[in-house]
Amino acid sequence: MTGLQTTMDRSSAELEQEISGAEIVVRALRDEGVEFVFGYPGGAVLYIYDELAKQEELKHILVRHEQAAVHAADAYARATGRVGVALVTSGPGATNAVTGIATAYMDSVPLVIITGQVPVALIGNDAFQEVDTVGITRPCTKHNFLVKDVADLANTLKTAFFLAASGRPGPVLVDIPKDITVKRCAYRYPDKVQLRSYKPTVKGHAGQVRKAVQLIASAERPMFYTGGGIILGNAAEALTGFVRHLGAPITNTLMGLGGFPASDPQFLGMLGMHGTFEANMAVQHSDVLIALGARFDDRVTGNLEAFAPHARIVHVDVDPSSISKNVKVDVPIVGDLAMVLAEMDQAWREGGYRLDPAALKAWWEQIAAWRARDCLRYEQGDSIIKPQYVVQKLHELTGGDAIVTSDVGQHQMWAAQFYGFDAPRRWINSGGLGTMGYGLPAAMGAQLADPERTVICITGEGSIQMNIQELSTCLQHRLPIKVACLNNHYLGMVRQWQEFFYESRYAMSYVDALPDFVKLAEAYGHVGLRADRPADVEPVIREALRLKDRLVFMDFQVDPTENVYPMVPAGAALSDMILL
Amino acid sequence: MQSPRHIISILLENESGALSRVAGLFSARGYNIEAMTVAPTHDPSISRMTVVTRGSEEIMEQVLKQLNKLVEVIRVHDLTDGPHIERELMLIKVHAVGPDREEVKRLADIFRGRIIDVTDRSYTIELTGTGEKLDAFLSALDPGMVIEVVRSGASAIARGSRSI
Known about the structure:
The complex is a heterodimer of chains A (580) and B (164).
Chain A: E1 4-7, H1 12-16, E2 18-20, H2 21-31, E3 36-39, H3 46-52, E4 59-62, H4 66-80, E5 84-88, H5 92-106, E6 111-117, H6 133-137, E7 143-146, H7 153-165, E8 171-177, E9 184-186, E10 192-195, H8 206-217, E11 222-226, H9 228-232, H10 236-246, E12 250-252, E13 267-270, H11 277-285, E14 288-292, H12 298-301, E15 312-317, E16 331-334, H13 337-350, H14 357-371, H15 387-397, E17 403-406, H16 410-418, E18 427-428, H17 439-449, E19 455-460, H18 470-476, E20 482-487, H19 492-501, H20 517-523, E21 527-531, H21 534-546, E22 552-557
Parallel strand pairs in A: 3-4, 3-5, 5-6, 6-8, 7-8, 11-12, 11-14, 12-13, 14-15, 15-16, 17-18, 17-19, 19-20, 20-22, 21-22
Antiparallel strand pairs in A: 1-10, 2-9
Helix pairs in contact in A: 2-3, 2-7, 4-5, 4-17, 8-13, 10-13, 11-14, 15-16, 15-21
Chain B: E1 5-13, H1 18-28, E2 35-40, E3 46-54, H2 57-69, E4 73-78, E5 84-95, H3 99-110, E6 114-118, E7 122-129, H4 131-140, E8 146-151, E9 155-158
Antiparallel strand pairs in B: 1-3, 1-4, 2-3, 5-7, 5-8, 5-9, 6-7
């Protein structure tokens, strides 16, 4: 690799011995401190698997589909903040992994994906199980490599880990031809890498930080809007301290939930398409909007022309290309969130700033009026289970302390709205790509990351069937996940859009011929429980939580016509909400 | 109204795949490419790419940021921000028989082109200049005379003693 400098700190005797490429892969992963490799073997990676089997330090989790390997590694990374690792074979192994990689890319999750490849001499020959993996994954990875010389292997792996975890994190793929895993060379794992073409900015520009603080201090209606960057950048504590010190209101994006405690009165809930009335209204009426580690996604802003029309905007992000991409901002700051927040906090205190108390009081009164709309209310009768009720009960009975993964659709929004997250890295979902089938494999990664904690996969009967085969993985690796399936017999979010925007023509959104999930869970060696009536909900959850060492599949038969409210129709202004 | 034209110079690692990363970025994000050239610099580990594109100021800001984000990109510069020199090479093969032979030769001279290959019925002319000049030469010719045109796409460099 040109432009790459590595530093070594090892005795030369150790360097002399030549080992195979497969051994290099395993040694490098161990030297990186990797705990788990999520993977699936196949022809092109057999030498690597052979080496994996010769050691015990590095544990391999055998999934049932490569997509699940990447999702599990991704959730492990989200739960721990460390780099997740997946290992798959060439061809279909790699293409199956692509959805997982794209999911991680959209949500900026640090991953290293190792793919097998056909031997160098066969590349380009349409060999058995050959695809152009680097070509296919180029647009959905932060970076990728094809290793054509065993002498580059260790450096490439080091660089991959460095790229995955630094700056704006993301998945990095290393494609390794089979013959490279056989060829031998001395093992040198560098301690550090430096790339002349890659130097992420971490420290915020002091002048910009000062400007930001002055602008915030001038606000009469300040509003914090924070995203996944707070979680990824381990900045939740710094954020919470700063926002509490100011006394200003705050909203989180779907990806940012847990960045600020949901139970804190300053928290207005999530914003955006299914955000709360108070959060969306406060953004729209704010005069200074402080966007931290958020990217003004279309699901957050609604109609861009009408977004936060009165606000001057401060935007902090580690990725310069996120700034002024969708919304022109007044004070841009590029840097690491935790560091910039510390700088802002210091500048605020040293400058003796405070928000105008009278203005802030009036602002909170206005917010209280919006809150009084109670936009998330629903009525739980005694005949049919409301999905929101299930999530609320899950929160109550786990003390809000579980890690919750979700799939994509209505259940995801209800989970985000009703399971209040008080800490970061507890809420794990596919926000950017919106990948159905994410939830169960994600729960596997999260459970391995935090074996003592309750991990709940909140899902629907549509999504769960997109990776249901992983119930088998869960048995093999004894993962006591609690699956909470909000079963409404519809692809619920599709159904909701059809009701609102397609004159209730429910084209192909009714899911007929569903399996009996209780029996299915049992067939996989797990426990299945079914709740048909509201009175069943609590006992079913209690029983599931009691069975600490078992995977329990809870099938909640919920109201098939329930919709997610509030809703901002796509392309409408954030203040144009459909309320119940 | 057409968006303003920009010439972007990119220094990037001379590695396989780097070109397609840049090309892929433009297509994936829907940025326009009018021309793209690439070749190694005096440092063989670095390639220099010139991309001619069009876009509003906001789009150009994103183009530059997204290019900078590519791991193998070392430096990005919009040459149209300042004084610069732009050249493009065109090789053009034309029918040249009878009275046209003299006419084509005269036209090539006016445009300071050089005839670099001759047969009894054709000339191949080499012409260098801005894209505009090459366009002008093409439109001065009777379209029926043109057999084949090859254009290199623009290369450009900033004026003055400094590098990008």
